[in-house]
């Protein structure tokens, strides 16, 4: 395992560690639902309450989750897809892409659904998944992990969350990931040495 792959798995593991820390602080079992109103003490926020002063919550909220299975899914997808991306891109770039894409997803959620609580790392992993679908080979574990991640996210939005469609907070980071992946491919093809994307 390379340094970059390890760092992306550390990010994934940090979601689990934060869940455990919050559960302990709230005095509840690890598998018990963590209610959004309780998570506001740690960084979750209602969309309408977002201001420049608490803009840090766009990042902090990505480590907070309401449901244990959802948190585990996010951690696994970030680990699998993120580590796979570090074989084609530098790990700082992959990390920044996920967190910035995730922050834009949180912002979109806050603007479109101002009465909803904003939290979770789905937005970050959808950015990574979209980029992975563009730059990774279709026979790789990372590419298929991205397919599964996107499919599960869409299914949850349509059939579990009760929304009429895919959440704007999921569409925006996915679009960002597609655009970034496309730009990387274009740059790579127009560089004589093809130095933008690493060869695998």
Q: Which descriptors would you attach to this protein?
A:
single chain; 200 residues; mainly alpha; 8 helices; 2 strands; 64% helix; globular
Provide structural commentary.
This protein has helices at residues 3-26, 36-39, 57-60, 68-85, 91-112, 122-135, 141-160, 168-190, and strands at residues 45-46, 117-118. 64% of the residues lie in helices and 2% in strands. It has a two-stranded antiparallel ribbon with strand order 1-2. The protein contains eight helices and two strands.
What's this entry about, in short?
The chain has 200 residues and is an all-alpha fold. It contains eight helices and two strands; from the N terminus they run H-H-E-H-H-H-E-H-H-H. It has helices spanning 3-26, 36-39, 57-60, 68-85, 91-112, 122-135, 141-160, 168-190; strands at residues 45-46, 117-118.
Show the helix and strand layout.
Blueprint: H1 3-26, H2 36-39, E1 45-46, H3 57-60, H4 68-85, H5 91-112, E2 117-118, H6 122-135, H7 141-160, H8 168-190
Antiparallel strand pairs: 1-2
Helix pairs in contact: 1-4, 1-5, 4-6, 4-7, 5-6, 5-8, 6-7, 6-8
Low-confidence blocks of residues: none
| Count of alpha/pi helices | 8
Radius of gyration, in Å, reads 17 Å
Strand order of the largest sheet: 1-2
Morphology call:
globular
Question: Termini, distance in Å?
Answer: 14 Å
Structural class: mainly alpha
Q: What pattern of helices and strands is seen along the backbone? A: HHEHHHEHHH
The total strand number stands at 2
**Major sheet description:** 2 strands, antiparallel
Helix content: 55-70%
Amount of beta strand: under 5%
The average pLDDT score comes to 92
């Amino acid at each position: 395992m390379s340094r970059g792959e390890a760092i992306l798995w550390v990010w994934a593991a940090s979601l689990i560690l934060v869940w455990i820390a919050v559960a302990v602080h709230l005095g509840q079992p690890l598998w018990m639902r963590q209610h959004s109103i309780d998570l506001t003490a740690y960084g979750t926020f209602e969309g309408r309450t977002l201001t420049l002063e608490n803009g840090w919550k766009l990042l902090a909220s990505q480590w907070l989750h309401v449901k244990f299975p959802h948190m585990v899914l996010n951690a696994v997808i970030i680990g699998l897809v993120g580590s796979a991306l570090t074989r084609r891109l530098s790990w700082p770039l992959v990390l920044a892409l996920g967190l910035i894409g995730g922050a834009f997803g949180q912002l979109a959620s806050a603007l479109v659904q101002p009465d909803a609580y904003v939290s979770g790392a789905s937005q970050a992993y959808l950015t990574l998944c979209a980029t992975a679908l563009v730059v990774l080979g279709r026979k790789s574990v990372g590419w298929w992990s991205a397919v599964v991640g996107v499919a599960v996210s869409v299914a949850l939005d349509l059939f579990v969350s009760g929304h009429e469609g895919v959440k704007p907070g999921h569409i925006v980071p996915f679009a960002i990931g597609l655009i970034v992946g496309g730009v990387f491919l274009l740059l790579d093809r127009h560089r004589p040495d093809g130095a933008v994307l690493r060869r695998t």
